């Protein structure tokens, strides 16, 4: 194993952590997956605001997945939020709350980036395989490890996991 990475996809139903071992020239090897419930559907009002109960579930789900990432000795973590949080009227408050409570700043993927990652996952045959990572997660892991020359949609100094804390 060259590196153990984790990708955290925080969406409307769950915070989905996939942990993979990666080696240069090889596809990611899934090691562990965890889904922590966010269930935001009933917590987004007509104005697009995620209510306090929904925000608390997001914070709790991210905290739980971070604990697992630490236990799994993840060297680098790529955390991102998808449409439910990206499109929320109070997304900055949600992102700030997660960062305040967990120390982790979620990155936002655009709709185009989500589509690209899903396409890559399907193209590489990762969709629908029980032992494989979820579509977005696997594609993100593969993209970041094997395409260093291609700017990553989730690369940022704030994305990288600090093993110390």
UniProtKB/TrEMBL annotation:
Where is the Ppx/GppA phosphatase N-terminal domain positioned along the sequence?
Answer: 20-126
Pfam families linked: Ppx-GppA
The protein's superkingdom reads Bacteria
Where in this chain does the entry annotate a coiled-coil region?
Answer: none
Show the InterPro entries listed in the entry.
ATPase_NBD, GppA/Ppx_hydrolase, Ppx_GppA_N
Query: MF terms per GO, please?
Result: pyrophosphatase activity
Q: Which family does it belong to?
A: Belongs to the GppA/Ppx family.
Q: Which PANTHER family match?
A: EXOPOLYPHOSPHATASE, RETROGRADE REGULATION PROTEIN 2
Q: What is this protein called?
A: Ppx/GppA phosphatase
Q: Which organism is it from?
A: Mycolicibacterium cosmeticum
Q: Where is the organism placed in the taxonomic lineage, from the top? A: Bacteria, Bacillati, Actinomycetota, Actinomycetes, Mycobacteriales
């Amino acid at each position: 194993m060259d590196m153990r990475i984790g990708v955290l996809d925080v969406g409307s139903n769950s915070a989905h952590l996939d942990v993979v071992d990666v080696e240069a020239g090889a596809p990611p090897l899934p090691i562990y997956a965890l889904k922590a419930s966010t269930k935001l559907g009933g917590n987004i009002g007509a104005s697009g605001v995620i209510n306090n109960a929904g925000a608390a579930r997001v914070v709790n789900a991210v905290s739980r997945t971070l604990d697992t990432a630490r236990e799994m000795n993840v060297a680098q973590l790529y955390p991102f939020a998808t449409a439910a949080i990206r499109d929320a009227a109070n997304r900055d408050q949600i992102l700030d709350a997660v960062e305040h409570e967990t120390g982790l700043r979620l990155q936002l993927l655009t709709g185009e980036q989500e589509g690209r990652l899903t396409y890559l996952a399907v193209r590489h045959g990762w969709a629908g395989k029980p032992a494989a990572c979820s579509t977005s997660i696997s594609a993100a892991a593969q993209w970041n490890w094997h395409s260093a020359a291609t700017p990553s949609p989730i690369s940022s100094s704030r994305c990288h996991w600090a093993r110390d804390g």
